[in-house]
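Feature request, filed as a ticket because there's no other form

It would be nice if the structure record came with a short human-readable summary line next to the tokens. Right now we just get the raw output. Example of a typical job, pasted below so the devs can see what we mean:
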Amino acid sequence: MAASTRQHAAPPTAPAAAGEVRAALAQARERTLALVAPIGDADLHATHSALMSPLVWDLGHIAAYEDLWLGHRYADLPLLHPDLADLYDAFETPREVRGHIEMLTRAPALAYLRQTRKRTLEAIERHGVGDGVLHEMVIQHEHQHNETMLQTLGLARLPGAGPLGRGPEPAAPDARTQPGGLETVEVPAGPFALGAPDTRFSYDNERPRHPAQLPGFRIGRTPVTNATWLSFAEGGGYERREWWTDEGWAWKEEYDIERPAGWATGPPPTQRPLVEASAPRWHGEPVYEWRRGQWEPLQPDRPVVHVSWFEADAFARAHGVRLPTEAEWEKAATWDQASGATHDWPWGEQSPQARHANLFETGVDGTALVGAFPDGAAPCGALGMIGDVWEWTATEFTGYPGFQAYPYPEYSKVFFGRGYRSLRGGSWASSRRVATPTFRNWDLPIRRQIFAGLRIAQDAA
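Raw output as currently delivered:
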């Protein structure tokens, strides 16, 4: 791509204000630094999982990405550290090798972040922000890596590692009407507009917006809860071969999968709180969940999280339902039957539902109780569609009709047709800038490190 690109052949967006861009850049950086501040050097540099990068690699990558797009390609400046370009390129240095190569340690990585940000702000002073597309892309990129870093911290089981602060828990709904994820709401047949509108930033895989025609269907009123998943597991969910695809069963058997990745049972180890009386039981043993940087008794009324697509698919088969397609999920989230219109944020950006998509940024470290935001229901009546858990869909990740890669093919196109499944909705760890009703996430069907759960669907009949 040519370096001189201060105005871009990008999707139309509302004009960006330089002051707003500076504030958003600062907010993302504050979150990054707060995540790593309590982590010791050994844990910052360690490879905690073969699936994930060392946390210190993420710091260098965030800096290199900003330098490439806002320093080099937007402001026409030479790269700050051209010798680091391949090291911090996600494709040149894949995850499986990052723990075995030399990279910047904490102090130099933090200095790289500061140097890059200084040049970015100077460039904004000189050139403004143009259409703002590349700046928003860089802001969202850092937020997405914050969520990836939280995944790493969860896999590492580092005590006390969590968000900027511990905010108040959302109020619990009435336990007598607490849904478990098997209740459904109806979405009538008819056309709607699938994909992101031209009025805001969106990624290439969300475009172009196009008409889609769907038959009537029903979709889960809420995500599936821990209590409902525990019943599935107790009822032979991980033992009944007929509920699993061939590929899913082979994966489950090879890796001895018998419960969600964030669960543990048995006598509590040292870090686990000694509150067995309040923990649900499974085969007579208390069940715990890794949350808030510690083991906590499993809360039955929170969404199940850290399940793979294979597990989600088996759960749906066991209950005679299925996972929603991407189009069904988005229609349920955005389509208003009363007006027949498709709304980008049907709840309004200041609604309880939209605020729910900001849980981590307000200091809530983990999912909220299902139904905790009744005022934030989508037009169809579904709850919690944004900002609690990523929700697996039945759809393989590919481009929409008329897809055009922008601003680089490696963001989406190289993943098309390779067995990845789409996820929707964002998680508690997603920034509200990222977790919109049209944002598309994707991962392989075996993956469980992401904050992913599920919502069921079925044909209207």
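Something like this underneath would help us a lot:
Residues 18-156 form a domain with the Four Helix Bundle (Hemerythrin (Met), subunit A) fold (CATH 1.20.120).
Residues 1-14 have pLDDT under 50 and may be disordered.
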